[in-house]
Amino acid sequence: SEFAALDARIEADEAAAEADLAQPVLAVVGRPNVGKSTLVNRILGRREAVVQDVPGVTRDRVAYDAYWSGRRFTLVDTGGWEPDATGLQAAVATQAELAMQTADAVLLVVDATIGATATDEAVARVLRRSKKPVLLAANKVDDDRLLADTAALWTLGLGEPRPVSALHGRSSGDLLDAIIAALPSAPREAGEATAGPRRVALVGKPNVGKSSLLNRLAGEPRSVVDAVAGTTVDPVDSLVELDGQTWRFVDTAGLRKRVNSANGAEYYASLRTKTAIDSAEVAIVLLDAAEPLSEQDLRVLTMVVEAGRACVLAFNKWDLVDEDRRHAMVRELDRGLVRVPWAEKVNISALTGRSVRKLAPSLRTALKSWDQRVPTGQLNGWLSELIAATPPPVRGGKQPKVLFATQAGIRPPTLVLFTTGFLEAGYRRFIERKFRERFGFEGSPVRVNVRVRE
Ligand code: GDP
Ligand code: GDP
């Protein structure tokens, strides 16, 4: 039954992660000068300024966060995609093709004062094959006299042409209502603030000093008195005050009631660790500074990273560390902690109390990173520069293209790259490393997912 509860929790987490990735994407396509950028600006309410096109300079932002009627979606301006096709018609058709594959819905913008051109018709032909919703915006309808021009656009075969004036904002609300209606239902807001104290798991191999640290942090009597959320017989969590903030140390019951059965003790210890990590937001991984990093330590760390929790590394028993040990550690940790170069390290002694007050600031940093979201516009501005400088490696004779990215989720921060080809793990790690160099995220794992549309 403990296993069943654990499985249910993992499933719930995975479902939540899936939902985060489902933030709907709307791609805006159309010929140059029909007013796509103006319309994108209008939809964004100018919260994220669109960089104006300068001839010969690549538009460096392609995707943005948009909100309407309490719904969030990603707005993609395909003008920044630079298709390889030569000729305007082929270029716009290629854009439409990519938009169709990448987005959940496509908005074709046409200049109603000009009417449907051959290029508009070519694009419409591409879009009519789409199984996804396509909306037709008849732009530059600045006043009622132009409504007749709008009706003429029915000939494109994309359903009702929706009159709008991107410049003056006329009917843009109606267009947005239609967009929201066409998009797949928006996911819940990912990981919004949870009520109450932040949840901390104190984990590490047996005898590393977990009980000692908990008692040191909480004070012996308090850790019992403040036990919460369980029955009076078997309290589960402890409330601990650190650095002026109350924290909930989860699943601490097992720390006080030591499981001493020789049989299966390790199994229960590992199960307890998993349960604690899953119920927490951030983990303090205790390591024994006086001993070499062990297999067991790495197993615990892996659990934390795979669960996507923020993390602080606490090297306990620092009072036993001498000069020689310190030198040995440097090399050892470089090798042992390659998976978590982003985790903050604190050297403590639960026995003497040395530096234990440094834990709270590190916990706060880690949680701040875990909660952090980079706006889509800013993310793509950075990403397009990075990719221009270091494109993904060619694979099977094909150059995969990264079209745009969003940070689809927080807790943990999760990037989704929308691409036209597979991105190797090495390149995804490169992106993660550069992302951290640019935006921080100390103390939190960062996930880089790829949505391939071919
Ligand atoms: P894009 O190349 O499709 O992104 O087009 P832009 O957004 O750069 O717009 C091209 C030109 O059309 C600009 O001079 C805009 O000011 C103008 N424009 C855009 N929307 C409207 C509109 O609703 N009415 C009028 N009259 N002009 C517009
Ligand atoms: P747990 O199994 O992880 O809960 O570990 P305990 O808290 O029971 O500690 C295991 C042993 O390590 C005990 O004998 C502690 O007194 C000792 N210990 C814990 N922290 C320290 C420390 O910072 N320095 C030293 N020298 N010993 C420690």
Automatic annotation (TrEMBL):
GTP 1 binds at residues 30-37, 77-81, 139-142. Signal peptide: none annotated. Keywords: GTP-binding, Nucleotide-binding, Repeat, Ribosome biogenesis. Residues 24-187, 198-371 form the EngA-type G domain. The keyword Zinc does not apply. Transmembrane segments: none annotated. The keyword Aminoacyl-tRNA synthetase does not apply. InterPro entries: AAA+_ATPase (IPR003593), G_ENGA (IPR031166), GTP-bd (IPR006073), GTPase_Der (IPR016484), KH_dom-like (IPR032859), KH_dom-like_a/b (IPR015946), P-loop_NTPase (IPR027417), Small_GTP-bd (IPR005225). Belongs to the TRAFAC class TrmE-Era-EngA-EngB-Septin-like GTPase superfamily. EngA (Der) GTPase family. PANTHER family: GTPASE DER (PTHR43834). GTPase that plays an essential role in the late steps of ribosome biogenesis. This is GTPase Der.
